Amino acid sequence: MIPVTIAVIFIVFLIMHLTPGDPVALLLGADATPELIAETREALGINDPFFVQFGRYLLNLCKGDFGISWYTGNPVSERLFSAIPYTVKLSLGAMLVAILISVPLGVIASVKRNTIADYVISVFAMIGVSAPTFWVGIMLMLLFSLNLRLLPSAFDGSFASYILPTVTQGFNMLASIVRTQRSSMLEVLSSDYIRTARAKGVSNFSATYKHALRNAVLPSITVAGLDFSLLVGGSVAIETVFAIPGVGRLMIDNIKLHDTPTVIGCMVFVSVMVSIINLLVDILYGLVDPRIKAQYLRENKNAGTHKKEKRESGASDLETV
User: pLDDT, tens digit, for every residue of 291-312?
Assistant: First the structure.
């Protein structure tokens, strides 16, 4: 996680450094004098060489200091931690919607292969993958907010205002998971051990949902974990369309203002969350499929045995000398 985070910080720092425009001029406005601009640039350390600024930021980050926002003058950590809960709530809701709908639809599409149900689910998934997220959000807003007047169109912090953005983001996620689950389920259902189970008298329901599903869900976990990490990192389109003050919208707004400390603080959060979620997905593999856990334990045991033999061989060589 540490090398990945440092690499992300360096890339974002470099991009923000090379981006045209003077952040101090944007901050002070058109009436600022050249003397005031030069004094502010010196106070913020913008006149220092790139690697001096980068090293200073890394040193402060090791102390837990994300820096001060150039635009508001407040600590970046305060702005970031106030935006994180909105993004996390949206991400968890979208993930719940996607998992509860996509896995059953993928299983049904594989079991009912080449039937009307399979065709309808496949078309539904294709629309979900192809349709832009912001367009789906606007269409749902027009239908449920402006025409039916059932849900609020803009985010106001209430539970009802989470429904439309959650469904919008979940629709985009479930489409990709449905296709993955269908393909994986078809492969597992055609495997030898499923045919053997059915030949021994196991019912189709038990063979499908008890034996096949557990092995077929691993690719879906991979796709869901990747999508969830991107969601937690901030769904820019959804948060912009529904005016949600989350991490994605915070990052986009401050990119426009050239507020480098705030942008990098958002990216640090994104990179750390992606690394943590990938770790949790790997752990979940072992819980879902015992073969992966057994392989991991076996590899660790073999590595430990190899190290022990190497130490004993080194001690024997030392005694010989």
Answer: 666 666 666 666 556 555 555 5
Q: Which amino acid is at 300?
A: N
pTM value surpassing 0.70: yes
Residue 159: predicted pLDDT: 86
Give the Å distances, CA to CA, from 252 to 44, 71, 117, 239, 259.
21, 14, 41, 10, 10
> What 3-state DSSP class applies to 70?
coil
Nearest CA to 57 out of 95, 8, 119, 118 is that of: 8
Contact 53, 261 (CB under 8 A): no
Q: Which of 6-10, 235-239, 311-315 has the lowest mean pLDDT?
A: 311-315
Domain ranges of the chain: 2-62, 81-288
CATH architecture observed for domain 81-288: Orthogonal Bundle (1.10)
CA-CA-CA-CA dihedral for 188, 284, 81, 93, to nearest 10: 40
**Contact present, 236 and 248 (Cβ < 8 Å):** yes
Burial 30-49 (b: 16+ CB within 10 A, else e): eeeeeeeeeebbeebeeeee
User: What radius of gyration, in Å, describes the C-alpha atoms of the chain?
Assistant: 26
Report the alpha-carbon angle 161-167-170, nearest 5: 135
Using CA of residue 35, residue 41, residue 43, residue 49, what is the dihedral sign?
negative
pLDDT(64) > 70: yes
Taken as a whole, the chain contains a residue count of: 321
**Distance from C-alpha of 134 to C-alpha of 175, rounded to nearest angstrom:** 15
